[in-house]
Amino acid sequence: MKEIKVGKQTLKFYTMEETFRKIYRSKKLREANEEELARLKLAYRMRQLRAAKRLTQKALAKKTNMPQSVIARMESGKHSVTLGTLYRVAHAFGKEVQLR
Questions:
Q1: Can you state the angle between helices 27-52 and 68-76, rounded to 10 degrees?
Q2: Full set of structural domains in the chain with CATH
Q3: Most CB atoms closer than 10 Å: which of 8, 71, 80, 100?
Q4: Which tens digit of pLDDT belongs to each residue from 50-76?
Q5: pLDDT exceeds 90 at position 26
């Protein structure tokens, strides 16, 4: 923490590490962060696999028998995915879903 006096006020500046250390003590926040990271990793991996197979979202949607909008939402990482949907996409890539 760094303090700077401005007139009669003292301003406190915290590094990102100090801020996150304090906030990350919350179990609820840690769990939400881990869920968000998992969703983003899944979205990234899905885009990687689709690009490697040279498939468009529309082509992948056809292989999974889902609307293209579902594929787009999954790849955005902003929406939760059901296990059934994840299974269908994994199957289209010749992959298995593993839960740890």
A1: 130
A2: 2-92 (1.10.260.40)
A3: 71
A4: 999 999 999 999 999 999 999 999 999
A5: no
